[in-house]
Amino acid sequence: MNQEAIDRLVASGRLAIVPTNPDRARVLLAQARKHLESADAISASDPSLAYVALYDAARKAILAHMLAHGYREAARPGAHQAVIEYALAALGDSAAAEALARLNRLGRNRNRSEYESWEPSPKAIKSDLKHASEIVTLVETLLTAQ
Amino acid sequence: MSVIIHSVSEPTSGLLPIFRSDNQLRLLAYIFIHGDRSHTPAELSRATGIAQPTVSREVDRLVKAGVLTAYRRGRARMVEPNRHVAYSSDLNSLLIKVAGPPAILADLLRPIAGVEAAYIYGSWARRYFGEQGEYPHDVDLLVIGEPSIDAVYDAASQAEGQLGLEVNPTIVSRDEWKQPQSVFLETVKRDRLVPVIEP
After folding, report:
1. Cα–Cα distance between B26 and A85 in angstroms, integer?
2. Rg of chain B's alpha carbons, rounded to an integer?
3. Phi, psi for residue B68 in degrees, rounded to 5
4. Architecture of the CATH domain A3-145
5. A121: helix, coil or strand?
6. What is the pTM of this model?
7. B51, burial (CB in 10 Å: exposed 0-12, middle 13-18, buried 19+)
8. Three-state SS for B116?
9. With contacts defined as CB-CB under 8 Å, which chain A residues touch B146?
10. Using one digit for the tens of pLDDT, what is the confidence trace for B83-115?
């Protein structure tokens, strides 16, 4: 955990310090797991929604990690980016490092799914679902061990 | 009374209309991006798809202005960027940012196994073909084949570093491209595409 980088995010007002909330963290993590299953289930019939689901799964897993450690993203523009930066600072040297390094790309694709007419191919969904899944599994392991 | 025709009208560059023509921009971009070597007009014509007489005319104009330098190797006339003018590195950077994506993406995608073809579509392609408008904030890249998705993402990220532009890839199989099953791909297929790697 790169605490200095997290402290910088707090100091610049992009992350807020909140009381730790393990119950809410567990709810978010359970939702993240469900989003992964949904993404997989609808990948052929509704690829753009599947992509939104897989990215949200990764994002909610990170939010769960944040809550369990007493952080949340500040309500201001660029909140998604702050979550990604937190993930890289908190978990960047973990087993899911490669998946985390791709979060920015996943987030960008998610926006293309949401706001443009973009649609990912089944292979792209499968590959990116694997990354999202690694992030969710990592946070599940870390929070269970706590 | 005589009528003097000063120039045959060529379309101005839609990507950046400060260049006198789209051909001039494409030619300069190719010469600068591949500035590590010199080129004959015939090679330039083959690489850019611009007719050789047009290439020779443009090269003459640019050599005279000092933008390019030319020398003889045997019977062949070789041209390369003139690195001795004060603005050379600025022009290089401008050309890469404005017209570099096909060249840079081709170099990065070609070594990836499974890439059968690649094209630029969307707003960058429309500017390239002369549609006027704001300079695009990203490059929409279509990759056809069965490459590793991550390898294509990595190439796109590397290109972003070189171009100072977002590169957003979409990777589809040859069958998905042949018979699009989505409205999105149908739309892309109707677009004019800038070739990056041709099958």
Report:
1. 38
2. 18
3. -120, 160
4. Up-down Bundle (1.20)
5. coil
6. 0.76
7. exposed
8. strand
9. 123
10. 999 999 899 878 877 778 888 899 899 999 999
* A21 SS3 class: coil
Q: According to DSSP H, which parts of chain A are helical?
A: 3-11, 22-42, 47-68, 79-91, 97-101, 103-115, 122-145
Residues in A lying within 8 Å of B, measured between beta carbons = 47, 102, 105, 108-109, 112, 117-121, 123-124, 127-128
DSSP-derived secondary structure for B5-58: ------PPPSS-TTSS-HHHHHHHHHHHHTTTS-B-HHHHHHHH---HHHHHHH
What is the C-alpha to C-alpha distance for residues B158 and B165, in angstroms, rounded to an integer? 11
Structure tokens at A34: 């469900």
pLDDT digits (tens, 9 = 90+) for A28-85: 999 999 999 999 999 999 999 999 999 999 999 999 999 999 999 988 877 888 999 9
Residue A128 to residue B149, Cβ atoms within 8 A: yes
| Residues A121 and B171: beta-carbon distance below 8 Å | yes
Do strands B166-172 and B138-145 pair parallel, antiparallel, or not at all (unpaired)? Answer: parallel
* Distance, CA of B105 to CA of B141 (rounded, Å): 9
ipTM: 0.85
- Which of B148, B166, B171 is facing A121, going by the closest CB pair? B171
Give, in order, the Cα–Cα distances in Å from A135 to each of A131, A142, B64, B84. Answer: 6, 11, 59, 52
Closest-CA distance, B198 to chain A, in angstroms, reads 20
Band (pLDDT 50/70/90 cuts) for residue B80 is very high
Q: Which of A108, A119, A123 lies at the smallest CB-CB distance from B149?
A: A123
Across chain A, mean pLDDT equals 93
Quick one: how many helices (H) and strands (E) in chain B? 9, 6
Cα A32 to chain centroid, rounded = 9
CB contact (8 A) between residue B185 and residue A127? no
